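Please fill in the sequence for the structure shown.

STRUCTURE ENCODING:
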């Protein structure tokens, strides 16, 4: 923000408000636009979530060809709720906690699949898009 008029204002982070973010439009690995993929019905129903919470069985979803197993206890934890609320308020550290809670032991493997081969870095936008798609597939954030 280079204008004097905007000086002192915080720019929203691209990772905030996970459930409210617009879908990405870049093509997925299979050539299908991500926006179209994101509009598909969630892979997990409310009944699936309730059954998972009652039995403690994990929820498994596949996003961009990556299968992630979500721990229902982690999803119903205070830490996850707090991190989600703080992330939506713009707290970068809270977004990091959401990624760690959602992905669990698969975090490093998932992040590696998002790494840009040209720069060697994991773009924040790619992580934000992945988390949005993951939460939509798991029917979270309703």
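FILLED IN BY: designer on duty
SEQUENCE:
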């Amino acid at each position: 923000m280079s204008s004097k008029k905007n000086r002192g204002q915080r720019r929203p982070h691209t990772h905030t408000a996970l459930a409210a973010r617009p879908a990405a439009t870049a093509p997925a690995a299979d050539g299908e636009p991500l926006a179209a993929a994101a509009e598909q019905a969630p892979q997990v129903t409310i009944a699936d979530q309730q059954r998972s919470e009652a039995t403690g069985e994990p929820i498994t979803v596949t996003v961009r060809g990556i299968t992630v197993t979500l721990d229902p206890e982690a999803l119903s934890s205070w830490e996850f709720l707090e991190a989600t609320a703080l992330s939506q308020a713009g707290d970068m550290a809270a977004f990091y906690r959401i990624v760690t809670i959602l992905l669990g032991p698969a975090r490093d493997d998932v992040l590696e699949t998002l790494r840009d081969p040209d720069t060697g870095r994991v773009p924040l936008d790619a992580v934000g898009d992945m988390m949005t798609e993951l939460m939509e597939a798991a029917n979270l954030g309703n």
